[in-house]
Backbone:
């Protein structure tokens, strides 16, 4: 092959090489952009999960406090034990704090019910945008996510139980307790996690 032919081959190969390199770079940047967006979404989802759980845990604490006050001072304490009277006065504050700890802000908050159990649905938005990428608009796009957490009673009481008399009940894990309204102190209450579970809704 002549030197002229070699030069012609090299001249034809160079544009193809540049073209392929450009495609590879574009694909690499595109993968990076999608990974960047996925990471932002995962971060927002983690923040939403944490915020919803914090709200439900705060409300669970209120439930146990209310239960302690109700036993011996009224006939509705079995409703507290069944998780039907959550106040959750500090639930939204707790959700906002956990969202902030995870670099997000709460944009929506409301009491929610799942299978007749009380809970909270929380929507969040990331504090920082996804960032610059080859995908237009990501520099001003914020990741969003939502989650719902539920408070579920872990103890069962007989429907025929009389709240004005001593009541025995069993909880998950094989633990049993009895509350006597005529002989009860707040210190008799077990840990909140023994009486109620808090979990994310499916």
Residues:
């Amino acid at each position: 092959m002549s030197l002229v032919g070699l030069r012609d081959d090299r001249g034809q190969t160079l544009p193809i090489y540049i073209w392929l390199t450009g495609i590879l770079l574009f694909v690499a940047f595109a993968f990076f952009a999608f990974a960047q967006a996925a990471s932002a979404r995962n971060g927002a989802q983690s923040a939403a999960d944490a915020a919803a759980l914090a709200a439900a845990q705060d409300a669970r604490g209120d439930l146990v406090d209310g239960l302690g006050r109700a036993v011996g001072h009224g006939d509705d304490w079995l409703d507290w034990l069944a998780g039907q009277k959550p106040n959750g006065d500090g639930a939204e504050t707790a959700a906002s704090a956990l969202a902030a700890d995870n670099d997000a802000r709460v944009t929506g908050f409301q009491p929610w019910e799942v299978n007749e159990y009380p809970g909270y649905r929380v929507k969040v938005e990331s504090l920082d945008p996804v960032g610059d990428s080859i995908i237009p608009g990501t520099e001003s796009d914020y990741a969003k996510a939502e989650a719902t957490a539920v408070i579920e009673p872990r103890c069962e009481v007989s429907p025929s139980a009389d709240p004005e008399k001593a009541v025995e009940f069993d909880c998950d894990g094989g633990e049993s307790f009895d509350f006597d309204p005529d002989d009860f102190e707040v210190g008799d209450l077990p840990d909140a996690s023994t009486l109620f579970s808090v979990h994310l809704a499916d």
Q: What stands out?
A: The first strand starts at residue 104 and ends at 114.
